[in-house]
């Protein structure tokens, strides 16, 4: 039997528990792996009663056995946390709890007890306090591979990777270099080859509008084209640099599996418009698979029982291809 996957609750005052419950109800139809949840048992129990879902929880030990995960009840590894109200305003109060949940997930990875984990949404601004640009970078730091990871926003139809992630626009050009582009694209190729058994077709954008700049040495000429040349020598199927303003038209989408952009919003804005909640966030370059739904904490609908679990369901489905 394959190793189980863990779902880390994330921010307790978000839609995380709701989408976990909704996904669990449908889990038999799409999931091939045993699952467990890392969170606070008492708070999850209160959330369950609040939403009135026909589900049960069961408390499991940190040194659980596979038999403990079987059945219809949601197995929960308890992480200490006290909260008076069922839902509170997001604040730093939950930071220690969330970090402890991640620590437990990483511990299970190091103990080779789980295949990988999915983390529920968190408020990056509150949790990371400007120490890291995002959860991708935070986990990479914890695993000792900070400069090796890449963010892949994935769907079967189309996926994207930004070379730079959560940085100010004025710093993008300074953070681009040939080695970074080559390294991240090689991680994409490795992931598709190993886990999806697919020869991936990649498009890469320029940085400047229409891949053109009046400057004598543009980023396209200095960085992007030399990177493409290196990658083609390694027999990687890559095209570009291509102008991002037309790359996401429907006729172009069919030509490629992954679009690699130079910065976050250049590729995440179109993929979220095209795929909605069918896309998921995968961290490449780690010694395990880390996934998260490609959406935030959704403070405007917390507790309203209208959250869409589609992205979490797609996150769980990804592991069906992985052993």
Short description:
This protein has 12 helices and 12 strands. Helix content is 37%, strand content 17%.
Plain-language structure description:
With 323 residues, the chain is an alpha/beta fold. The chain folds into two domains: 1-147 and 286-323, Isopropylmalate Dehydrogenase, CATH 3.40.718; 150-285, Isopropylmalate Dehydrogenase (3-Layer(aba) Sandwich), CATH 3.40.718. It contains twelve helices and twelve strands. It has an eight-stranded mixed beta sheet with strand order 3-4-2-1-5-12-11-6, with helices on both faces. Helix 1 links the parallel strand 1 and strand 2. The longest helix has 18 residues, at 178-195. It is elongated and about 65 Å long. The protein starts with a strand and ends in a 5-residue tail after the last helix.
| Assembly state (oligomeric) | single chain
Strand content: 15-25%
**Which spans of ≥5 residues are poorly predicted at pLDDT below 50?**
none
| CATH-defined fold name of the largest domain | Isopropylmalate Dehydrogenase
**CA gyration radius, whole angstroms:** 20 Å
Main pleated-sheet profile: 8 strands, mixed
* Structural class designation: alpha/beta
Give the total of domains.
Answer: 2
Based on Cα principal axes, name the global outline: elongated
> Termini distance?
9 Å
- The CATH superfamily of the largest domain is identified as Isopropylmalate Dehydrogenase
**CATH class value of the largest domain:** Alpha Beta
The residue fraction in helices comes out at 25-40%
Strand order of the largest sheet: 3-4-2-1-5-12-11-6
- Based on the coordinates given, report the CATH architecture of the largest domain: 3-Layer(aba) Sandwich
Number of strands: 12
Q: How large is the count of helical segments?
A: 12
């Amino acid at each position: 039997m394959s190793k189980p996957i863990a779902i880390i609750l994330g921010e307790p005052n978000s839609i995380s528990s709701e989408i976990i419950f909704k996904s669990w109800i449908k889990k038999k139809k799409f999931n091939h792996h045993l699952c467990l949840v890392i969170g606070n048992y008492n708070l999850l129990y209160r959330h369950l009663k609040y939403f009135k879902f026909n589900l049960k929880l069961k408390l499991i030990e940190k040194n659980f056995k596979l038999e403990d995960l079987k059945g219809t009840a949601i197995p929960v590894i308890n992480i200490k946390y006290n909260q008076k109200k069922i839902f509170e305003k997001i604040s730093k109060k939950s930071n220690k709890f969330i970090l402890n949940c991640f620590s437990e997930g990483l511990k299970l990875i190091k103990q080779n007890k789980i295949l990988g984990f999915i983390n529920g949404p968190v408020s990056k601004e509150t949790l990371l306090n400007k120490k890291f640009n995002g959860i991708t970078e935070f986990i990479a730091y914890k695993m000792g591979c900070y400069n090796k990871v890449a963010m892949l926003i994935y769907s079967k139809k189309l996926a994207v990777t930004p070379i730079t992630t959560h940085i100010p626009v004025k710093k993008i050009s300074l953070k681009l270099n040939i080695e970074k582009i080559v390294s991240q694209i090689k991680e994409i190729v490795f992931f598709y080859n190993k886990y999806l058994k697919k020869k991936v077709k990649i498009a890469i954008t320029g940085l400047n509008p229409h891949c053109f700049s009046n400057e004598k040495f543009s980023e396209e000429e200095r960085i992007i084209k030399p990177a493409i040349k290196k990658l083609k020598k390694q027999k990687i199927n890559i095209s570009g640099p291509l102008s991002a303003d037309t790359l996401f038209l429907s006729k172009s989408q069919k030509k490629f599996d992954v679009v690699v952009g130079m910065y976050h919003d250049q590729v995440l804005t179109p993929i979220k418009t095209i795929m909605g909640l069918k896309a998921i966030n995968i961290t490449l370059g780690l010694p395990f698979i880390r996934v998260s739904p490609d959406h935030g904490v959704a403070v405007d609908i917390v507790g309203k029982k209208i959250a869409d679990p589609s992205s979490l369901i797609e996150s769980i489905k990804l592991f069906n291809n992985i052993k």
